[in-house]
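Continuing the batch. This is chain 6 of the set; chains 1 through 5 are on the previous pages. Same settings as before, nothing changed between runs. Recording input and output for traceability.
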Amino acid sequence: MLATVGRKTSPLTMAMYKQFGDPFRHKPRMASTTLAQLAVVKSKVDPSDIKAYLREAQQFRLNGVHEPFWRNAALCCPSIFLTLEILHYLHKFFWDHDVKWCLQIVGDAEIDFRLSVLQPTAGFHHFKGGISKLKQVTGRVHRDVQRYIVGIIAGAAPCEILCAIHTLMDFRYRVQSYLIDDDDLQQISAALDEFHRHKQAVLDFGGHRGKGSRIIDNWYIPKLELMQSFVPSIRNVGVAIQWTADVTEHAHVTEIKTPAEASNNHNYDPQICQYLDCSEKCRMFELTTSLAESNAASHSIMQGGLTAEESDSDGDEDTTCIKGVGLARPITNYFSIATSLASKGPGSIPLPLQSFTANGTAINLSYDPSLRRTNIDDVAKKFGLPDLRVALAHYLHCEQTYGSSYSHPISGRRHGTSYPALPFTEVQVWFKVRLQNTAVHNAAEVLPAQTLHCSPPCDTWTLGRYDAAVFNADNSAAWLADGLKGM
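Output for chain 6:
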């Protein structure tokens, strides 16, 4: 509507619906082009004759608007100011097309089964009933399914289909970055080009279907054509993530649905307004008291009531949490905790440390282990690790011989008994560990910690249950630059 074009026409380029599947970007629809087309239409038909004017405008695939609001604005072009929106153009496209292709090719039952037997992971949605029966799902579910889809169809879908889905997912994740440079733009374009090289397989295997399982043999998908405009849009107006509709869409929940649930289901409007008014007063009160407490603490330090060192040592909020007004779940900063503990004097805190950092990752263990002072041989038997004693001896030997320059292998069996005897016979075992990283594109942004769980083998789970993680075991390789090299 804002670009004044009709249906089945791209608002950003000169492409029409039969060209939506082309593997290249068509000529952009410039404001001068649209205004010139409108001038031709108005020279033939009076705009007051609505039917005749619309019929003539449709010859140029226009929608009949004869005076766009942006016509007199300097340097104003719809192909630039109509920014691409991630929630609908990427996540909604994934649910409407990628998921449907996989369900048609692999089968509903197979995908549901594969999702149901996945190990539940802390912090990740577990679809124990599958996804084929889900209705009216939200953008949050779209993102959750995206995390699994490539691994779920691997081994069941043909290689060409796997490549098509994988490259589209690569495109989506790269486009959502908060920092994008020219190299990133090239990788985004390459991912989309790779999809177009494999997309024919979706049609060949009958994955693209409409209502009533009607086979569709074309690519008349408007959102697919709009993907070609992401790179030019990022160059013109910045990263795409800033234009996402997540915030405004979520306002439906915070401003309407949640207040409505607190009502008695009668006279919604006044009760919703009263709820929002009360919530605003609570937020203002919280802000005021937080500022007052901050000013009081600063004044106390200035007057000599507390030294800076005492304030830091007693102020757990500064060292353990990143807090903000209105945050329901503060993010615990294990990096700050580890730094604070490492600076303590000998004998002031118990050792070994339960919070520490290693290669840019903060690691936290609970104060009390799951198994306290357990014999090594008992642990080896309980977890099915016959080489545990040798592995511990190998670890100590390498630490003493090579020091920190040695990278310990994560896996593999250790043989032989040439290592010195262990200086201990008992160990402590934790069934869970918290790992925390910083954002890939902003090292100052601390991400929420992820918890890895494990449990020993039992009658039901003969190999035990555990979450999976990918570790960098090569000091010369760095994520994200080197991909999975060294992992």
